[in-house]
Write a structure and sequence with these properties.
single chain; 392 residues; alpha/beta; Rossmann fold; 2 domains; 8 helices
Length: 392
């Protein structure tokens, strides 16, 4: 969506592209007074796209000097398959997979996109009307190029719906998150099961249709990243979120290729506290039971019970792993407790479907696996997404 804004009278009409939630790198601004009290994003003047904003014409601090502003919303163009890949597009695999994996020769697959909705409306509004979206603040460093500060304020449902470019009938009934180091294999293996795929206004948040069911998918590694799409789509009204990915088994009978269904996840990450999570976060047991039934129909070995979520994959000494195992945890992962906590905060039903990658503490994620074990991992890795689609 291109936002054309009437700036200073001497400049005439200026079009600004807002990368508020787009694909561009975002910087936290701590050096400017405008950054105090709110998240600040720094973007190039020519690289801003995707949302409704106000332009602060007098180059003062954010929120000062604005009276009436005219905002023109034009058509939003979705990314097309033939556009160049981003540099980070690399081969995706479960985040515990070893570095010996073959990454060569994998190309991003194209997906037929649903036609973009055409939007054009013109409004006049005071700053307060749109302050829940964001405010642009223009700044020209001495001797440098102009820059624009984007201050993210509170965003309500209407704001997120606009930023994501969603109609009410497109709000996903199911959000599937996958914890993985490598995003591209996740996209290449998951998105073909959906139709009409397009990327929404949040990076790597993909929208598609599973039959008549609107679904969102996001490859999100780690707790702090995983809660973001939960927060956004929870605000929009998505009722179900399912975390998928790999985990490390902590019990002798939890073997490589098995499925772990977390009923409760001990919080060992830092994101849950901001969504009211304390100690343990819980799954929706109805969704867990449904998942167990679907896996049983595939003749797959499942374990139900307690898991633990950590924020540090590479800082899990043997003594800590033994402590987790002694506490009865089936497995450890990087996202589940945070997803459960955020889902609870937004009244969403949550489940976690993980397959066992490595068997801890005696075996690391970087160790080699037999062909039989690799086949079990691949089978389970495919099954978790297919089962997740049945949990809406």
């Amino acid at each position: 969506m291109i936002a054309g804004v009437l700036p200073e009278h001497c400049e005439g009409l200026r079009h600004v592209q807002l990368a508020l939630l787009g694909q561009h790198s975002l910087g936290l601004l701590e050096h400017d007074a405008a950054g105090e009290g709110g998240l600040q994003l720094l973007v190039d003047c020519d690289a801003v796209r995707g949302g409704v904003v106000l332009y602060e014409c007098d180059a003062g601090h954010v929120g000062q000097g604005l009276t009436q502003a005219q905002v023109v919303l034009a058509e939003r163009s979705h990314r097309r398959p033939e556009q160049p890949e981003r540099p980070e597009d690399v081969v995706a695999q479960p985040h515990r997979q070893g570095v010996h994996a073959d990454e060569a020769g994998v190309q991003r697959c194209g997906h037929e996109l649903r036609p973009a909705r055409r939007l054009r409306r013109q409004v006049r509004a005071s700053p307060g009307v749109l302050s829940n979206i964001g405010i642009l603040h223009r700044h020209r460093p001495r001797g440098g190029e102009p820059q624009i500060y984007v201050r993210m304020l509170h965003v309500d449902r209407a704001g997120w719906m606009n930023l994501l470019n969603l109609d009410d009938d497109e709000v996903p009934r199911l959000l599937v998150l996958e914890g993985t180091w490598w995003r591209q294999r996740a996209l290449d293996s998951r998105l073909p099961l959906l139709e009409g795929v397009r990327e929404l206004g949040m990076p790597d948040l993909w929208h598609g249709w599973y039959g008549d069911l609107p679904v969102a998918f996001c490859p999100a590694y780690g707790a702090s990243r995983a809660v973001e799409p939960v927060h956004v789509l929870g605000t929009c009204g998505t009722p179900v979120v399912v975390q998928i990915g790999s985990c490390g088994g902590l019990q002798p009978n939890v073997r490589t290729g098995d499925i772990v269904l977390s009923e409760r996840a001990t919080i060992g990450e830092g994101a849950s506290q901001y969504y009211g999570g304390k100690g343990v976060a819980k799954a929706n047991l109805g969704r867990v039971t449904r998942a167990a039934s679907l896996f049983a129909g595939r003749d797959m070995h499942c374990h139900r019970g307690s898991t633990i979520t950590t924020s540090a994959l590479l800082a899990q000494p043997s003594a800590l792993l033994r402590k987790w195992a002694a506490a009865g945890h089936l497995a450890v992962d990087m996202e589940t407790s945070a997803v459960f906590s955020a889902a609870t905060a937004f009244g969403m039903r949550a489940a976690s479907l993980l397959f066992v990658w490595d068997e801890l503490p005696g075996r690391s994620w970087s160790d080699a696996f037999t062909k039989t074990e690799q086949a079990a991992q691949a089978r389970a890795g495919s099954a978790i997404f297919e089962v997740a689609l049945g949990l809406a």
